[in-house]
Amino acid sequence: MQADFAELTSKLASGDTRALARAITLVENEQPGFARLLESLDVKNTPVIGFTGAPGAGKSSLVNAVVDHLEREGKKIAVLMIDPSSPFNRGAFLGDRLRMAGHFLSQNVFMRSMATRGSMGGLAPKVFEVADVLKAAPYDYILIETVGIGQSETEIAALADTTVLVLTPEAGDDIQTSKSGVMEIADIYVVNKADREGADTMYRNLAELSHRHATTNWEIPVIKTVATQDKGIDLLLDAIAAHMKTNHLPARRLRLLAAKAGMMIRALKTRNLDDARIEEALKAATDEPDFNLYRFVKTFAG
Ligand SMILES: Nc1nc2c(ncn2[C@@H]2O[C@H](COP(=O)(O)OP(=O)(O)O)[C@@H](O)[C@H]2O)c(=O)[nH]1
Ligand SMILES: [Mg+2]
Question: How many degrees, rounded to 5, is the angle at CA 256 between CA 146 and CA 66?
Answer without folding.
Answer: 30
